Amino acid sequence: MFLRIKRSPALIDNQTVIHPTDRLNKPLLFSTALALAVWLIWYAYSSPDSLSIIEENWAVTLTMVFGSFIAGATSEGGGAVAFPVFTKVLHIAPLDAKIFSLAIQSVGMTAASLTIIALRVSVAWPVIAWASLGGLVGVSISSTALAPLLPPALLKMLFTAMIAAFALPLTILTWQKRLYNDTLPFFGAREKAIWLLIGTVGGGMTGLVGSGIDIICFSVMVLWFRLSEKVSTPTSVILMAVNALAGFALHGFLLDSFNATVERYWLAAVPVVVIGAPLGAYCCTKLNSRAIAVILILLILVELLSSLILIPLTANIIGISMTVFVIFLWFYYRMARSARYRPACKGE
Fold first, then answer.
1. Residue 333, class by beta-carbon neighbours within 10 Å (0-12 exposed, 13-18 middle, 19+ buried)?
2. What is the pTM of this model?
3. Does 15 map to a domain?
4. Is residue 9 part of a domain?
5. Closest by alpha carbon to 108, among 320, 295, 271, 301?
């Protein structure tokens, strides 16, 4: 015969000791409730075609199982997975792939962001505020004025060249004993202007390829401001959520480019991203800074190889991409060498 014994909370100095699992219970319940709520809304909206949409677009659903987890766990963003797979493997039009990326990240990254907040993960809120403001400007300008003028293959290679340039100094820093900041050392008028500008550039890239503000801001946080990857990653996730919502609203309500085909892709992916992205965000909290950096470097390598294999390269695209690579590498090198935001504690 077994007796179930109800344990009383331990007390130390008249204070209840909170077990580590108790800290997870509320965020877990919150994420579960959020997923259930999204599923109910999704089913009500897509019914009676809910299952047929997934069956018809199973490749999209499968892609975003992995894409959403990566989006929540890293600064790479789900769009970085969706865009190349959609355009080169599933042969979906680049414009539709970009709009899908914005639409699905507005769900997945928002769910991941809410999970990050529920878990009380440390993030750089001043960066989020000012970079998001710039991101709204950038995504609006690039979506309306620049995207129609530039070929998709060039846009994708420019994005690849930019993040490949970031991978080099990040690799060097990762294998060095380095210093990092857990919080922003200071944040004045200069920093506000910096993040407004960086956010504008990142938002511009998001408007062109469906993601970008996350990895661009992440690179500046890590290389220049020397923020730990454990802080920079969730910060970049929230930044991408805000920018994706803005981009999705722009295409859905003003540009009227969220067509029926993209909507079905979106509906096929919503049920999985609302689980995958928060799960990725949670897993990120269990990794140290070096592990996060290594995973990101590997993802950038995959991004580079897939772009070189799948994108038809012309002399013009190669020349422009190499120029962008060198320019960004120079900027990243200067950031990494800067001592303005000198860290105050030892890295991992």
1. middle
2. 0.88
3. no
4. no
5. 271
